Amino acid sequence: MDDEGFMQEAIRQAYKAKQMNEVPIGAIIVYKGDIIARGYNVRETSKTALSHAELIAISEANRHMGSWRLEDCTLYVTLEPCPMCAGAIVQSRMKRVVYGAPDLKAGCAGTLMNLLEDERFNHQAEVTSGVLKTTCSSLLTDFFRDLRERKSRNDD
Questions:
Q1: What positions constitute the catalytic site (predicted)?
Q2: Is 131 exposed, middle or buried (0-12, 13-18, 19+ CB in 10 A)?
Q3: Integer angstrom CA distances of residue 153 from 1, 116, 145, 156
Q4: Under the phi-then-psi rule, with left for phi > 0, alpha for psi from -120 to 50, and beta for the rest, what region is 41?
Protein backbone atom coordinates (compact mmCIF):
# COMPACT_ATOMS: atom_id res chain seq x y z
CA MET A 1 0.00 0.00 0.00
CA ASP A 2 1.20 3.55 -0.71
CA ASP A 3 0.89 6.78 1.31
CA GLU A 4 -2.61 7.50 -0.03
CA GLY A 5 -3.81 4.01 0.84
CA PHE A 6 -2.51 4.26 4.39
CA MET A 7 -3.95 7.77 4.74
CA GLN A 8 -7.35 6.35 3.78
CA GLU A 9 -7.13 4.14 6.87
CA ALA A 10 -6.22 7.17 9.02
CA ILE A 11 -9.30 8.89 7.55
CA ARG A 12 -11.42 5.90 8.58
CA GLN A 13 -10.14 6.39 12.12
CA ALA A 14 -11.09 10.09 11.93
CA TYR A 15 -14.65 9.09 11.00
CA LYS A 16 -14.80 7.01 14.18
CA ALA A 17 -14.03 10.17 16.16
CA LYS A 18 -16.65 12.10 14.21
CA GLN A 19 -19.29 9.48 15.03
CA MET A 20 -18.58 10.19 18.71
CA ASN A 21 -18.90 13.97 18.17
CA GLU A 22 -15.14 14.27 18.64
CA VAL A 23 -12.93 16.43 16.41
CA PRO A 24 -12.34 14.04 13.48
CA ILE A 25 -8.64 13.30 13.60
CA GLY A 26 -7.31 9.82 12.93
CA ALA A 27 -3.90 8.17 12.96
CA ILE A 28 -2.29 4.86 12.15
CA ILE A 29 1.25 3.53 12.52
CA VAL A 30 2.82 1.28 9.92
CA TYR A 31 5.77 -1.08 10.41
CA LYS A 32 7.20 -2.99 7.45
CA GLY A 33 4.04 -2.44 5.42
CA ASP A 34 1.63 -3.55 8.15
CA ILE A 35 -0.66 -1.38 10.26
CA ILE A 36 0.34 -2.06 13.86
CA ALA A 37 -1.62 0.68 15.63
CA ARG A 38 -4.64 2.91 15.20
CA GLY A 39 -5.97 5.89 17.08
CA TYR A 40 -8.51 8.65 16.89
CA ASN A 41 -9.21 11.76 18.88
CA VAL A 42 -11.24 11.18 22.08
CA ARG A 43 -10.42 14.29 24.14
CA GLU A 44 -14.03 15.21 24.84
CA THR A 45 -15.05 11.66 25.73
CA SER A 46 -12.02 10.93 27.93
CA LYS A 47 -11.83 14.46 29.38
CA THR A 48 -8.02 14.29 29.10
CA ALA A 49 -5.77 16.58 27.10
CA LEU A 50 -3.53 13.65 26.14
CA SER A 51 -6.21 11.82 24.13
CA HIS A 52 -4.95 12.86 20.71
CA ALA A 53 -5.06 10.34 17.85
CA GLU A 54 -1.27 10.26 17.52
CA LEU A 55 -0.64 9.60 21.22
CA ILE A 56 -3.19 6.79 21.30
CA ALA A 57 -1.60 5.21 18.22
CA ILE A 58 1.93 5.62 19.64
CA SER A 59 0.91 3.89 22.88
CA GLU A 60 -0.65 1.03 20.95
CA ALA A 61 2.45 0.72 18.72
CA ASN A 62 4.71 0.69 21.80
CA ARG A 63 2.71 -2.24 23.18
CA HIS A 64 2.79 -4.02 19.83
CA MET A 65 6.56 -3.56 19.41
CA GLY A 66 7.34 -4.20 23.07
CA SER A 67 9.45 -1.04 23.07
CA TRP A 68 9.21 2.72 23.38
CA ARG A 69 11.32 2.99 20.23
CA LEU A 70 9.44 3.11 16.94
CA GLU A 71 12.50 3.64 14.76
CA ASP A 72 11.29 1.88 11.63
CA CYS A 73 7.69 3.05 11.80
CA THR A 74 5.66 5.61 9.86
CA LEU A 75 2.83 7.60 11.41
CA TYR A 76 -0.05 8.62 9.15
CA VAL A 77 -2.30 11.31 10.61
CA THR A 78 -5.10 13.35 9.08
CA LEU A 79 -4.04 16.64 10.74
CA GLU A 80 -0.55 18.03 11.20
CA PRO A 81 0.78 17.15 14.67
CA CYS A 82 0.57 19.72 17.47
CA PRO A 83 3.60 20.50 19.70
CA MET A 84 2.67 17.79 22.23
CA CYS A 85 2.29 15.10 19.57
CA ALA A 86 5.39 16.26 17.69
CA GLY A 87 7.35 15.90 20.93
CA ALA A 88 6.04 12.36 21.42
CA ILE A 89 6.94 11.51 17.83
CA VAL A 90 10.52 12.70 18.35
CA GLN A 91 10.76 10.91 21.70
CA SER A 92 9.50 7.64 20.19
CA ARG A 93 12.12 7.88 17.42
CA MET A 94 9.48 7.58 14.67
CA LYS A 95 11.18 7.33 11.28
CA ARG A 96 8.59 9.17 9.20
CA VAL A 97 5.39 11.21 9.56
CA VAL A 98 2.82 11.65 6.80
CA TYR A 99 -0.03 14.08 7.38
CA GLY A 100 -2.99 15.32 5.40
CA ALA A 101 -4.20 18.77 6.43
CA PRO A 102 -1.99 21.55 7.80
CA ASP A 103 -2.86 22.93 11.23
CA LEU A 104 -2.68 26.72 10.96
CA LYS A 105 -3.12 27.18 14.73
CA ALA A 106 -0.85 24.50 16.21
CA GLY A 107 1.04 22.71 13.42
CA CYS A 108 4.54 21.68 14.44
CA ALA A 109 5.53 19.65 11.38
CA GLY A 110 6.17 22.61 9.11
CA THR A 111 3.34 25.14 9.45
CA LEU A 112 4.14 27.14 12.62
CA MET A 113 7.45 25.38 13.18
CA ASN A 114 8.96 22.02 12.41
CA LEU A 115 9.88 20.16 15.58
CA LEU A 116 10.12 16.88 13.69
CA GLU A 117 13.06 17.88 11.50
CA ASP A 118 14.80 20.22 13.95
CA GLU A 119 18.46 19.21 14.02
CA ARG A 120 18.88 20.50 17.58
CA PHE A 121 17.08 17.36 18.79
CA ASN A 122 18.81 14.01 18.95
CA HIS A 123 16.27 12.53 16.50
CA GLN A 124 14.51 13.80 13.39
CA ALA A 125 11.56 12.30 11.53
CA GLU A 126 11.11 12.68 7.81
CA VAL A 127 7.91 14.65 7.05
CA THR A 128 5.58 14.27 4.06
CA SER A 129 2.70 16.73 4.05
CA GLY A 130 -0.50 17.19 2.08
CA VAL A 131 -1.40 13.56 1.40
CA LEU A 132 -5.15 13.55 0.65
CA LYS A 133 -5.12 17.12 1.96
CA THR A 134 -8.51 18.08 0.48
CA THR A 135 -10.28 15.09 2.02
CA CYS A 136 -8.62 15.59 5.41
CA SER A 137 -9.29 19.34 5.40
CA SER A 138 -12.92 18.92 4.36
CA LEU A 139 -13.55 16.45 7.16
CA LEU A 140 -12.47 19.06 9.72
CA THR A 141 -14.09 22.05 7.99
CA ASP A 142 -17.43 20.24 7.68
CA PHE A 143 -17.30 19.09 11.32
CA PHE A 144 -16.73 22.60 12.67
CA ARG A 145 -19.34 24.14 10.34
CA ASP A 146 -21.91 21.60 11.53
CA LEU A 147 -20.93 22.23 15.15
CA ARG A 148 -21.41 26.00 14.74
CA GLU A 149 -24.78 25.44 13.08
CA ARG A 150 -25.95 23.17 15.91
CA LYS A 151 -24.83 25.72 18.50
CA SER A 152 -26.59 28.49 16.61
CA ARG A 153 -29.88 26.53 16.53
CA ASN A 154 -29.58 25.78 20.25
CA ASP A 155 -28.98 29.43 21.07
CA ASP A 156 -32.22 30.48 19.36
A1: 54 (proton donor)
A2: buried
A3: 43, 41, 12, 5
A4: beta
Classify 21 as helix, strand or coil. coil
Cα–Cα distances (Å) from 83 to 9, 28, 38, 86, 90, in that order, read: 23, 18, 20, 5, 11
Please tell me whether 82 is known to bind a ligand.
yes
Condensed to tens digits (0 to 9), the pLDDT of residues 48-104 reads 999 999 999 999 999 999 999 999 999 999 999 999 999 999 999 999 999 999 999
Contact status, residue 73 vs residue 30, Cβ threshold 8 Å: yes
136 annotated to a ligand binding site: no
Would you please indicate which residues are annotated as catalytic (active-site) residues? 54
Characterize the bridge pairing of strands 73-79 and 96-101.
Answer: parallel
52 marked ligand binding residue: yes
Long-range contacts of 110-119 (CB under 8 A, 24+ apart): 110/80, 111/80, 115/83, 115/86, 115/87, 115/90, 116/81, 116/86, 116/89, 116/90
At 41, the amino acid letter reads N
